[in-house]
Amino acid sequence: MMPKNVERVLWFCAGAAVGAGVALLYAPQSGEETRKYLRKKAEGARDKVVEAGEGLVDKGRALYEKGAKVVEDAGNLLERGRKWVTE
């Protein structure tokens, strides 16, 4: 299962692509104006993807740090248990 942020970004991109296609078919503006519009939309989609990626990296770091702390605590408990058994 994909994380919610990734799923949202994928749906956003799919919606942007469909919207761009419909805009091309029904746009009363010139080709240059349409290209400017599509460029602006693509830049917005790119920014959303970058933001989602940064969020995923931040969450990954937090999970890594939490996992490292759990492993460290488990190691400490194991060591305390060994000392207790040998005493």
Structural summary, described in words:
The protein has 87 residues and is mainly α. It has one domain. It is 91% helix and 0% strand. It has helices spanning 4-26, 31-86. The chain is rod-shaped and about 85 Å long. It starts with a helix and ends with a helix.
Helix content: over 70%
Q: Structural class given helices, strands, pairing?
A: mainly alpha
Extended strand count: 0
Instruction: Average the pLDDT over all residues and give the rounded result.
Output: 83
- Unreliable parts: none
Element order, helices and strands?
Answer: HH
List the helices and strands and how they pair.
Layout: H1 4-26, H2 31-86
Comma- or semicolon-separated keywords:
87 residues; mainly alpha; 91% helix; 0% strand; rod-shaped
What's this, in brief?
The protein has 87 residues and is mainly α. It has one domain.
